[in-house]
Here is the input.
Amino acid sequence: MNAVEISGVTKAYPDVTDGGEGGMRNVLEAVDLTLGEGERIAVVGPSGSGKSTLLNIMGTLDRPDAGSMKLFGEDYGGADERRLARVRGQEIGFIFQLHHLLPQCSVLENVLVPTLALKPKPDPAGTRERALALLERVGLQDHAGKRPAQLSGGERQRVAVVRALINEPRLLLADEPTGALDEESAAKLTELLVDLNEERKVSVVMVTHDSRLAEKIGKTYRLRHGKLEVA
Here is the structure.
């Protein structure tokens, strides 16, 4: 089974370069992409090329104007918001450039936030044990009680990765997750995503502007003028 199947996806936004005359610009134009279950890919391209839009469509945060998108064989084109929220909570983990950790909560509490929306409610002891095991996996077992402000940028992003994994998603979507990190931290985070893909068989899509990091992920696609091509 494929994790993601995108066929003929087109997405347009108002063209702000036309003087506000109401024109539209295709950010994505008849894009096709298949991501196998357990596969990992990188998507590169300049700012404004549509990378985040493509990722948002994969994550059901946005809908295409045309074309179809399937997750694990299910078509979510006509799904209502309740069904989309359920698939986001149970099947997809998100990592963004900004970690969006809650400053008033501890590392462990931040990691457990996504479990609060699950129905039925998971066993609290089991989720806490899984959270601590994941924090140990990324070398943060001694930071569970700390606040985000007490961590480095790279450590905060590792917490964000653990938070994305806490509900055991089958698909991990990372949108410029290294954009706010120094070169060494960025390389370590990218290697962590590769390791998690190989260990847990979670499908990974990483959007980045850095072609060197994309090479570490493996198979790379480039978005250019709305078209997706193998880099």
Summary: The chain has one domain: 2-230.
